[in-house]
């Protein structure tokens, strides 16, 4: 068993109540870690530390120096990628080599936002009152609460904290109770990199801790990644205090394959869209739409490949798909697949648990493909968040646009075709925050990412993200000698 405390104000701190909770390794199904069970009092203590840092040393550091410190944190993340990845894999079962690569990429995020830190500029407003100097300042908000899920803990945390810190805010991270360890280690690396204590803080716990963070009066913004139901609740609670939210929520993304696409490319595109990361990603291409002229051929190939995916220990080099992250998620996968079959869907492969030698207690589920699901069915409308694909034929372009847009979500979409004119026309018609053409799951620190409809509010990545952690102040200065008499009106 591994034991972790909260980490705020630059030190390890037990929950003030003395409470703890336990986590499970999904590969073995056995207890793995013990963490501090935070509540409102712990949030208050961390918020005071974060607020003190914001109004103290962190607030006095120059923009350029702040950016350099973020770059140094990026270096520490790179240097410790293997250790951080081992923690995440032990907690969520994600393939180790994939997690290492993902965490190493976070150095680029820190460098990008470190470079933007001293590019934050106001403007001089050209007024018709020539004796008045009017200019704007772009200032940090204060303490930012960041709540992240369990599927890609370090990746999603850095996507949120990098622009927040670059803008000059301080941060309290509330990681998922499933994957809390790496966030604590990340905060400790921030101290090693030279960030002042109180700038990056971590509180572990269950729902009570997250709710207290959202409600705390010192917290000026909430950045949340997770389900749309939780996002709605957080936005409502934050709205009561008139603080803003950036919400990256669920998805039920369409992945569309036209008749002119190469079958080898299409096969890879379908598999990468859904079975990478065991389907536990908000942008999973969980609805595959295939043109009728290639439908049978592509389905045959995809089913064959899905059956051959090597499910096993995520630390093993030969493993292609690890376990789902929690027993609750495993039950959800099973339940939604069974309901889809009961509703008339045809199971083409998978649909059952997998027993892995040496990991008999693990939460393993077969790569699963179904067809003939009704457009209004639960499987086509709701996020499974597991290795479950619904595949459907289409023939008409207008029909596929209607089907693609036919859910409450709008996070991502894939279009596979050699007809570039058609691809760009469809990209405009599909309601999604990101549209990939002849690729899938591509992401970069410089390109905005976020959802439409129930998939979220605001954008992460790119310059657009840093602006969401800033507020504008307008400053007026009369340079002339005469002060206008308020009782003499000028027209």
Walk me through the structure.
With 491 residues, this protein is an alpha/beta fold. It has two domains: 2-249 and 455-475, Aldehyde Dehydrogenase, Chain A, domain 1, CATH 3.40.605.10; 254-437, 3-Layer(aba) Sandwich (Aldehyde Dehydrogenase, Chain A, domain 2). The chain is 39% helix and 22% strand. It has 16 helices and 23 strands. The chain has a seven-stranded mixed β-sheet with strand order 15-16-17-14-13-19-20, with helices on both faces. A six-stranded mixed β-sheet has the order 10-9-8-11-12-22, with helices on both faces. It has a three-stranded mixed β-sheet with strand order 1-5-4, with helices on one face.
Please provide a brief summary of the model.
The protein has 491 residues and is α/β, with parallel strands linked by helices. Helix content is 39%, strand content 22%.
In CATH, the topology of the largest domain is named Aldehyde Dehydrogenase, Chain A, domain 1
Q: How many domains would you count in the coordinates? A: 2
Mean pLDDT: 97
Task: Please state roughly what percent of the residues sit in beta strands, choosing from under 5%, 5-15%, 15-25%, 25-35%, 35-45% or over 45%.
Answer: 15-25%
Q: Output the CATH class name of the largest domain.
A: Alpha Beta
Q: Segments where pLDDT lies below 50 for 5+ residues? A: none
The shape is globular
CATH architecture of the largest domain: 3-Layer(aba) Sandwich
- Relevant CATH superfamily of the largest domain: Aldehyde Dehydrogenase, Chain A, domain 1
Radius of gyration: 24 Å
Protein name: Aldehyde dehydrogenase
Domain Aldehyde dehydrogenase: 20-475
InterPro entries: Ald_DH/histidinol_DH, Ald_DH_C, Ald_DH_CS_CYS, Ald_DH_CS_GLU, Ald_DH_N, Aldehyde_DH_dom
Active site: 248
